[in-house]
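Q: For a teaching session next week I want to show students how multiple molecules come together into a single three-dimensional assembly. I've collected the sequence lines for a complex. Could you give me the predicted structure tokens for the whole thing so I can convert them for display?
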Amino acid sequence: MAQQIESRSPQDPTDVVVSAPAATSGQVRAAVDRARVASREWGTAPAVQRATALHAAADAVAGAATELAALIVREVGKPVGESRGEVARAVAILRYFAQQALDPDGETYPSADGRALLLARHRPRGTVGLITPWNFPIAIPLWKAAPALAFGNAVVLKPAPDASAVAIRLEELVRTVLPDGVLQVVTGSAEAGRALVESVDAVSFTGSASVGRLVAVAAAARGIAAQCEMGGQNPSIVLPDADIEQTAAIIANAAMGYAGQKCTATSRVIVVGDAAPFTQALVAAVEGLASGDPADEATVVGPVITEAARARVLEAAEAAVGSGGRVLTGARSGDGDGWFVQPTLVDRVDAGSPIAQDEVFGPLCALLPATDVEDALRIANGVPYGLVASVFTRDLNTALDLAQRLDVGLARINAPTSGVDFHAPFGGEKDSSYGPREQGKAARDFYTSTRTITIAPAAS
Ligand code: NAD
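A: Of course. Below is the structure for the complete assembly, covering every listed component.
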């Protein structure tokens, strides 16, 4: 029998959400071959036809919203409110790119002789491989697939094994409204992912920095376009003039919501000046977050995805304590049989220590003191990642200055690090990203190439 992968519910690991085939290289290649055939008609079809199909896909997802949100809760342990929000966002993404299919598809330039037409037209890349993580099981696949399809590509999606069920259901829903072979899902893990990179015309990846680097190297070796969105070590800088209670509430959510499993989660809080009052407020805000069953409407912090993820969080907290850190709250497993871990805050941490440098991807956050704004900026930028940073202040000049000098793709003033606007460019600097930005109007840069066309009058 073909090898299988299993996706289990993190709040009830005895619950096998789906058991799916681990696609072999040959099966991945066959899916890509089917996509290539489908892409010929899809890529040359009138744009309005693609727009209509994407609106129909949005309707199909919207029609199954309740069921999909429940499946997200069950499969990845995302709190139900956030799961509903993710499905709503997925629908909005489909509609946004349905409209973008009808945007101007190129530019005109003055020609050398002033008579000829000189055009640069966008054209699809062909078949695009999408490799996605488990933490946004419907929004991430769709913020890649929707622009890819809108601009005339076929896609083959390889979801993370822990999010296979949502991807399979998504394929079932949109298959009914899209031409055959235009969107296919292949389940599996690293082998299937590698095979996809080896056979597609372009690859868009979201996941960890270590895997993203492998994908970028393999794509470069084949000479295909690649886009990799990876991890973060995101700081929130709190200046002395920030409102303590409000800022603490925002940061507590950004650090611990969905058990800190967002690439945009806050994992360092850099407090300028006297850190004691803010630290106290943050501990209270974190301890006030409702933790537990993600199906419960009140829950903000559910489980982490696997037993290994829980061990990683607890070990990181222990290592921080081993090198002089102090646990302010958490650092223990949570109640229940699932992979629960208490939201954990650690201070007295050295800015160069692993907890303040590496991505742990769980409900773990380090507090770091800074003497002044320059010191805060130095600490904020002193990591290999550069996805997002927040600054909390009422001082407009400092906010404007930091928004320029933070080495990140997203700078947010008085707003949480977490949160993505699908209609604006998204991506990071340094180890957080490779290749062109995702989302918004920027998406077209990756999912199309251009052809420059000269049309001169025939000789008379
Ligand atoms: P991961 O890197 O373990 O896996 C991502 C995907 O890559 C999965 O589908 C996996 O099966 C596949 N894969 C694994 N090895 C491969 C290989 N050698 N070749 C090709 N594909 C391979 O990440 P994860 O644990 O699923 O997700 C968590 C990570 O994703 C975190 O680092 C998080 O920061 C990141 N993330 C980033 C963003 C962003 O937009 N920047 C968004 C969400 C998550």
